[in-house]
Design a protein that fits this description.
Layout (H helix, E strand, L loop, with lengths): L1 H7 L14 E2 L2 E2 L1 H20 L11 H20 L6 H24 L6 H7 L5 H21 L2 E2 L12 E2 L3
Antiparallel strand pairs: 1-2, 3-4
Helix pairs in contact: 2-3, 4-6
Length: 170
Amino acid sequence: MNLRWALKRNWLRYQTTSASLVMRDRELSVSRFQSIAFTSVVAIALLINGFTDLEAFTIPASLLGLLGASQAIYLGAKTAQPQVAGDKEIEELNTLLKETRELEEALVKAAPMAHSLKEFQTALEGKTQPLDDYTAKLKKAANRFAQIFEIKLPTKGIYGLEFGSREGSE
């Protein structure tokens, strides 16, 4: 449910770029680049030779050595990199997102005909506490989400509500 909610708000779309194959934290990852480069060289050689005579396909020993070293470096880098988030952090984020969703659902239920922030405020008849609670929870959820997944998030909540840029900072 939280994943669907985050996807609906485009919070996850920034992670699905082709650049993420060779980038980590907005910088070129040499281990990822090596892995992709050497694997691509072998794949291209296989395509050039064709699929009909696979028994005769050989990889030169030097290239095979480089490919093995590249894979070892990649695995070493993956092992050495810090873990993004533990189970406890993800569980806390899920709870925070669930609370945010519930506040948002309550706001929508309180003003089902509102289509803009002004209409929404009018429908609440000057009671700003539900809106303030939602805004505070949304900011906190967005900050935590951005920190854990190391991404920049869109800055709008429901009804075009602006809550500021989120880039992993609280």
